[in-house]
């Protein structure tokens, strides 16, 4: 059984950042275990490449340059480097350098292409059971990512959100003459709606719970940074939801008196209602663990980061929001890692 100082579970953007920053802090590569079934930048690299970002290119570049261990300055030139730093971009453009960094980091640490299934704290060491083998570690960081939430309305054929957000995949569906319901008013909804309207559907029906919210860029911070619409999604929403509704698009509150009748007239449904944490490795000693959103701690020597364990932040006006985004994961590590080093087993 191999013993490590740190084990990182997950190889999406948060896991990549964690491995890089551990190396930056002087942890030897042979003391780091990295566990992931694919090492393909997680769902970020596998599912969301066709999605326009709500983050500006400049902030993606900040993330890539934040860890010296990424050696991004020595990387080949990527499409991302040639884009306007103040504009947004497709996520596939960001995934490209992340794949290069992943392969570079894999040469420096021990990697395990498998899935972690159980964690146990024994003799001040974490035992990490995977589908293939067992490793022990003084500390474990969970960067397991999240999966789309779903609602449950019977009688409708669900279109997966990853399909609705990818025009090429959407074009392969037989939607001629169909009526499609879309639940939600998030960034994903404002990408899915125009994508659907660009297909031969008869009608798209958007169900919402509240008014749209837009991010506001101020001098040194962003109001509604993590909850407001930005970029291409914000532009489309202002013109087509809060502006002039396009033909073949109808919008209704879920409290509408005829909600059930309108929904039953739909053939397909897309749920853009947020994300929830992917299932964690089992922890039979305690059952389901909760994390501290101010610092990412789950237990001594066990920490969480990324969209599964977002940092809770209070903005200058006193509003609170959970911070999700590549550069925000890196910022969490700036403050969190020094604390994690002192909160071991």
From TrEMBL:
Limits of the FAD/NAD(P)-binding domain: 7-189
Single GO MF descriptor: oxidoreductase activity
UniProt xrefs under InterPro entries: Agnestin_monoxygenase, FAD/NAD-bd_sf, FAD/NAD-binding_dom
Highest taxon above the source species: Bacteria
Database matches in PANTHER family: FAD_NAD(P)-BINDING DOMAIN-CONTAINING PROTEIN, PYR_REDOX_2 DOMAIN-CONTAINING PROTEIN
Protein name, as recorded: Pyridine nucleotide-disulfide oxidoreductase
């Amino acid at each position: 059984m191999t013993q490590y100082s740190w084990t990182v579970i997950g190889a999406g953007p948060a896991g990549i950042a964690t491995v890089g920053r551990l190396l930056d802090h002087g942890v030897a590569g042979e003391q780091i275990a990295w566990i992931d079934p694919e090492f393909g930048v997680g769902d970020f690299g596998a599912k969301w490449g066709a999605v326009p970002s709500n983050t500006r290119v400049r902030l993606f570049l900040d993330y890539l340059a934040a860890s010296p261990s990424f050696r991004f300055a020595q990387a080949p030139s990527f499409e991302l480097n040639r884009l306007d730093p103040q504009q947004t971009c497709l996520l596939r453009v960001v995934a490209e350098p992340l794949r290069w960094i992943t392969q570079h980091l894999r040469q420096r640490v021990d990697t395990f292409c498998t899935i972690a299934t159980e964690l146990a704290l024994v003799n001040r060491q974490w035992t990490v059971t995977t589908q293939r083998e067992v490793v022990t570690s003084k500390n474990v960081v969970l960067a397991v990512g999240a999966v789309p939430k779903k609602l449950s309305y019977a009688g409708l054929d669900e279109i997966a959100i990853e399909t609705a957000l990818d025009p090429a995949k959407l074009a392969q569906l037989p939607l001629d003459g169909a009526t499609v319901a879309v639940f939600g008013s998030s960034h994903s909804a404002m990408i899915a709606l125009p994508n659907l309207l660009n297909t031969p559907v008869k009608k798209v029906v958007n169900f919402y719970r509240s008014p749209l919210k837009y991010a506001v860029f101020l001098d040194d911070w962003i109001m509604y940074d993590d909850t407001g619409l930005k970029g291409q999604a914000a532009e489309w929403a202002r013109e087509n939801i809060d502006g002039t509704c396009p033909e073949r698009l109808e919008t209704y509150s879920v409290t509408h008196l005829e909600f059930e009748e309108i929904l039953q007239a739909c053939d397909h449904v897309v749920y853009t209602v947020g994300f929830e944490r992917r299932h964690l490795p089992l922890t039979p000693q305690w059952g389901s663990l909760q994390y501290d959103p101010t610092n990412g701690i789950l237990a001594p020597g066990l920490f969480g980061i990324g969209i599964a364990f977002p940092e809770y932040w209070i903005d200058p006006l006193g509003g609170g929001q959970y911070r999700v985004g590549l550069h925000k994961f890196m910022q969490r590590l700036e403050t969190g890692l020094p604390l994690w080093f002192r909160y071991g087993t």
